[in-house]
Amino acid sequence: MIAHTPEPPYTAVIFTSVRSDGDNGYAAMSKRMNELAARQPGYLGMESARDGLGVTVSYWTDDEAAAAWKRVAEHVIAQERGRSTWYVDYQVRVATVTRSYGPTGPR
Amino acid sequence: MIAHTPEPPYTAVIFTSVRSDGDNGYAAMSKRMNELAARQPGYLGMESARDGLGVTVSYWTDDEAAAAWKRVAEHVIAQERGRSTWYVDYQVRVATVTRSYGPTGPR
């Protein structure tokens, strides 16, 4: 469940969101986007949790790989639907991971 | 619930964890650490969710502010208790936020 990322540096996209009421196709889209993201060039992994607030961090080899995923057509449509329907509020933060540590090393 | 952070750059500490069974003092410590972190110099905000996996991102003015929080005595004790008791697995990633966007601006 914790992503197995390489030695830094690499890119993290921190997506924080507050959902609107009702599913409105969200669960199916979320599953599809997770599958699609995992097939993109430069994808390193994803970590996600929601309890009220949703916090999803996706990891990429570099900023360009993350930016390319943002431009994937099916994902562009999902982003638009997110803004119009699924999210009351959200924020995207693009960051460069410089250090990583845990019980099993840098991961 | 979404942290109100300033224009980048600033530092994000991404803490991902898998809890062990039972509370063992975790809830009280978690509340205390959130209160204590919010009083540290350079603290900008925190976003957190847990459903199986826990994903907590804390934001700091710079890496040194984040490093100083890591060294606060009461937090050092909590980290030790986390390693020995509360967490089956965890990872800490220190990152520099370079871009931020959402419906209300950079935040």
Number of extended strands of chain A: 4
Structural class of chain A: alpha+beta
CATH top level of the domain at 25-97 in chain A is: Alpha Beta
Q: Under the CATH scheme, which architecture of the domain at 25-97 in chain A would be assigned?
A: 2-Layer Sandwich
> What overall geometry of chain A do the principal axes of the alpha carbons give?
globular
Largest sheet of chain A, order of strands side by side?
2-3-1-4
Oligomer: homodimer
Query: What portion of residues of chain A is helical?
Result: 25-40%
Sequence of secondary-structure elements of chain A = EHEEHHE
Fraction in beta strands of chain A: 35-45%
- In whole angstroms, the N-to-C terminal distance of chain A is 12 Å
Number of helices of chain A: 3
- As residue ranges, the low-confidence spans of chain A are none
Please give the largest β-sheet of chain A. 4 strands, antiparallel
User: Greatest contact pair?
Assistant: A-B, 40 and 40 residues
Tell me the radius of gyration of chain A. Answer: 14 Å
CATH topology of the domain at 25-97 in chain A: Alpha-Beta Plaits
Mean pLDDT of chain A: 96
Pfam families (chains A, B): ABM
Organism (chains A, B): Knoellia koreensis
GO molecular function, one term (chains A, B): monooxygenase activity
Keywords (chains A, B): Monooxygenase, Oxidoreductase
